[in-house]
Design goal:
Keywords: Metal-binding, Zinc, Zinc-finger. This is FLYWCH-type domain-containing protein. Pfam families: FLYWCH. This protein has six helices and eleven strands. The longest helix is centred in the N-terminal third of the chain and has 19 residues.
Length: about 250
């Protein structure tokens, strides 16, 4: 399988991965792109392949390699690319990004990674350079940053915030999800503790059956650890079924 990216070379040249080897873009014509082994300079490997400039399909298979195959290096480069992509495009906590990027890596590749704290520090640095909205790290933060209260379509996402305190609860749902809740007749719930930021106790998700598919329709993060607080806030969830998406 071919994958092409612009990550992995110091000059940000397109890089092609195929059958465990990497190729750097050498030149192109109106019909083809010419690639050469990424170890052309270090190990004088002269393997080359050609791809169609429109479809990226291989039009000339790679010639024989003379370089040493190192699948671990390829794994590490893919880890770096996934790390940067997730840091820039998701709201995941740094620790969760590391966990997701490590999935599927070999033990040999994992052993060559920097220590976890250094990787998380790198994620925060990437986000600071890209003017990324910082996720609050204190359960007593006064308010949620406005950029995190809206969806990418600029519709309301934060529906309820009980305010600072040990029993704080945040409820999230998009306009579309509220519409599904209003029309659904069957609901399912799912709670998890593993993926919750350290500042909260549990992530609770309400799923609704929509067009014969189970769809996540509402979620909240909680700090409650008492039945009375849970009972009080479960009534807020029930009230959302009568809330107009435009309110």
């Amino acid at each position: 399988m071919i994958t092409i990216s612009t990550f992995g070379t110091t000059k940000r040249k397109p890089l092609l991965d195929y059958n465990g080897h990497s190729y750097v873009k050498d030149r192109s014509t109106t019909e083809k792109i010419y690639w050469r082994c990424s170890r052309y300079s270090t190990q004088h490997c002269r393997s080359r392949l050609h791809t169609c400039i429109l479809t990226n399909n291989i039009v000339k298979p790679p010639t024989e390699h003379s370089c040493t195959f190192d699948g671990t290096t390829l794994e590490l480069r893919k880890f770096d690319q996934q790390l940067i992509d997730r840091a820039k495009s998701t709201q995941e906590a740094p620790d969760m990004i590391v966990t997701n990027c490590i999935k599927g890596m070999s033990d040999q590749a994992v052993s060559r990674l920097p220590i976890r704290d250094n990787i998380k520090r790198r994620i925060r640095k990437i986000r600071s350079k890209n003017d990324y909205t910082a996720v609050p790290n204190d359960p007593n933060f006064l308010s949620i940053p406005s950029a995190l209260c809206k969806t990418q379509r600029n519709s309301q996402f934060l529906r309820s915030d009980t305010g600072p305190g040990d029993d704080r609860i945040l409820i999230f749902a998009s306009d579309e999800q509220l519409g599904i809740l209003q029309s659904a007749h069957h609901f399912m719930s799912d709670g998890t503790f593993k993926v919750v930021p350290e500042e909260f106790y549990q992530l609770y998700i309400i799923h609704a059956v929509y067009r014969d598919h189970v769809t996540p329709s509402l979620g909240w993060q909680t700090q409650y650890q008492t039945d009375s607080v849970f009972a009080h806030n479960i009534h807020k969830f029930g009230a959302l079924a009568f809330l107009s998406p435009n309110d």
